[in-house]
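User: Quick sanity check before I run a bigger batch. Here is a single chain. Can you write out its predicted 3D structure?
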Amino acid sequence: MQYARLGSCGLMVSRLSLGAMGIGDKKWRSWVLDADEAKPIVRRALDSGINLIDSCDFYSNGASEAVLGQLLDGFINRDEVLIATKFGMHMGPSPNQRGYSRKHIIEAAEASLRRLRTDRIDLYQTHIWDPTTNIEEMVEALDYLVRTGKVLYVGATDMPAWQFVKAVCYAKANRLAHFVSMQSHYNLVWREDERELFPFCRAEGIGLLPYSPVARGFLSGKARRTDGGQTERARTDSYANEWYGRPEDEAVAQAVEEVARERGASPSQVALAWVLHNPAVHSPVIGPTRVEHVEEAVAALDIRLDAAEIERLQSPYRPRFKTSHG
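Assistant: Done. Predicted structure follows.
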């Protein structure tokens, strides 16, 4: 496994992170793995050297964190793994059981700590963004969690660049804990954050943890796009159809398949290698549902795309001007 410093903070993270959205309770999503099904995948990820595991309180209504807490408790010493989770989505019927108020942030962190069976969260991140958030209140609440030792570092997910900048600058100006990472939607067919967010993160030493590096399977081969996919997730994932599928996206996917054939690699590996080649990227978040998915992703770390291949992969792309995630 390769490791990198997460931006300018002191954490050393594996060059791949294990995403736990697919671990938890099948009642939440039909393709989610229960504890017994997830066990060999988590074990293989840890054995391969992956040290950052990313969950969220919203995933399986808390069951993702609970299963992770159970598995990690028996697999590895707590000090050897970085546990990341997220907060902000609705966790109950009350209007105060969601969002980024001081009340919800602190209560959500306490609940996640219980489910994860740990005394601290290594990286605590915002989830789906609420543009009406009182940023100063949010930053101060997160700083409180850091000062009390319940959270070690804080990060964000998919925020408008101007609000992310405001949060970072407010925290730094007031010597409060600031975001050390950004978890951003990024792959060969979704590159919008290259305009503003990525340059800011590089300039400020903020780590990048891209999710959906193979576009939820869209870049995993023609069968996944045209035949309904070979997995339960591919067949039931409405977001993939909503976000991807423009003619330009199809052209990118075809270029990925051509480069993969020439290299004797899988399309997923080429798509992942492209994300990893970006010097701003520290640790893409993968979401395996089979052990072989982990092994395939780890093997992609050894793929070094040349300039001509990168040009072939990038040239069909056309920017989006509306990038809502729903």
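The chain has a mean pLDDT of 94.

User: Great, the batch can go ahead then.
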